[in-house]
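Quick one, T. Sequence first:
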Amino acid sequence: MAAKTSVIGFPRIGKNRELKFASEKYFKAEISAEELEKTAEELRAYGWKKMSEAGITFIPSNDFSFYDNMLDTAFLLGAIPERYKALGLSPLETYFAAAHGYQGGAGDVKALPMKKWFNTNYHYIVPELTDDMNITVSEDNKALSEFNEAKSLGIKTVSSVIGPYTFLHLATYTGEKKAEDFAADFVNAYVQLTKYLSAAGAEWISFAEPALVFDVTDDEKSLFVSIYKKLIAKLHSDAKIKISLQTYFGDIRDVYKEVCQLGFDAIGLDFVEGKKSFELAESSFPENTLLLAGLVNGKNIWRADYQKKNEVLAKLSEKIEKDNIVIGTSCSLLHVPYTTSSEEKLEQNILEHFAYAEEKIIELKELASGDTSAFEANKKLFTGQRVEKDESVQKALSEITEADFVRKPDFAEREKIQHEAFKLPLFPTTTIGSFPQTKEVRANRAAYKKGSITREEYVKFNQKKITECIKLQEELGLDVLVHGEFERNDMVEYFGSQLKGYIFTQNAWVQSYGTRCVKPPVIWGDVSRNKPMTVEWSVYAQSQTKKIMKGMLTGPVTILNWSFPREDISLKEQTHQIALAIREEVLDLEKNGIKIIQIDEAALREKLPLRHSDWHTEYLDWAIPAFRLVHSKVQPQTQIHTHMCYSEFNDIIRDIDAMDADVITFEASRADLKILDALKEANFRTEVGPGVYDIHSARVPSVEEITEALKKMLGKVQKEKLWVNPDCGLKTRGEEETVASLKNLVAAAKALRAEA
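Structure tokens:
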């Protein structure tokens, strides 16, 4: 008899990004809410049927989302800030207002903050809890609706809900109440939800508690235990339903003993990223409890090694009843593309090494069945060396010395040199890099890719757009300009497609946030640069203006973190390979007269270990030097910028300063500029540009709003060190709102100069 199997979550954007396109049409009022809902229904049915056909035992529902599951949970619980409800919009419109802001006849509100979801490139909406919120679950709720929807298709699912502890842990609090003050109301709400599901025929409910993989303090442990003691007691007495605790992205060493004593019917542990998960499970595991063993990697696209997975299963079965071991994914498959069957251009000898979501479901099936032929076929994939080492890359790595990580002269001396050379005004204005990519821009790039236009035609079109972009920036009065990045589809894919050692997928889309999808390149071998990648565009742009033009690059850590990395060598080695390649580009830009070079590290924090004790030993001690390796050889008068977005920087602010950039810009507006306190406390030396408005919203900030934000910044940052810029690149924004926003940004900076 085959073992039981479990999937934590399935991708929801659609094989061809149907949800993205339908949502964007809905935002533009090109389709109705009913048409958007129909697309969503089709996508949910697709995933359920795929899992059902593969014989998956525990199929999730409520893992779908129009934008984000944390935001879904807030709406499920009625935890909706009054300012969004006061708009008087429909439930769906209110939901989207909270997700990306609203500006119209009903009012003007900013979106809720957005942060990185643990150590992934997915972003979640941060819930906001106010003292007067009435936490309750109505019968007309998303979890119940989707359970019934699957049931109507003849598919029994496990409703998966963000657990109360994780929700309370990640939420922000605006009043006197804290997490423990909301705990009783949350228990009652989750009990009510479970009763609704039980009455509808649900046999299981799964509470996702990934926050347990962080360092858990004694107070946090007490909160978790108190919540679940009450919740489980009430559910066992009031609802005929089994309770699963699902964790992922690491191990739960701090609360494992308590988890085992609480009486869960199933416990999900991550055996991919959980360094101590095997040790914990082997030492003790509650009887008559299912172990949802997360063995198939839900975050990378490489095939699972069946032999190694079987070895883990065999050892676990020595301590745990074999029938109680469920083979599952390590986390939601949200973080991988749909299926390799959509990759029509990759050679079979490459593609056979990849497993996207649908292939991972088949892996679960094969591991559970013990199919001999499947195991033999899998074994062949792991014999021999898949990639060849590049001797020149290996030689360059071996020649790196400590001097390669140190830029001279020191920051203070460089700052004086650069101020004298550039003579920029106080509060210099700039943007992060990209400008709106219109249909024409995307069509030009697609036509060139297909071969339907010549390179000469492609370049001519982009040069025209660059010239127009520069003229616009000059008219607006921006101080440091960008070329607009019309030649780039994505800040990592663009570089990955030009670096040796990378392969370029056709349809490996994954969701980053909301309607934003990315297509990470794949590191297939040793990485090096064949030729300049950006110099042509930056040199042309600089020739069109007397103002300073920024060269725009993506940093090595972000390129690594937003790629699907190799699993046969360390992340450190892969990052240093990329750093050497980007260093060549930096030096070429400098040689060609580019005076400011921005090296974006938007994803610096992404692979930061979730436990503080591992931060430096496993990540920061090589990630920060990797950035310095890129720019350490430039001249003192060349100004190095970097950019970071939508992460929590406060606790690594000193490490960011140690990157030794000259200027750093970062997301701040959606987080209410909270990072300013950390900058001041750390005596941050790097010049800074906290984002003054949120580019993920269509709303246009007023001059007064931006001026107020800048004045708040000046309370924490020296005026000589403050830059003025948006939160992030403007690629996804419309042209009209972009011009209006930047016009107000420049006006605010000029007003502040007049007062200085």
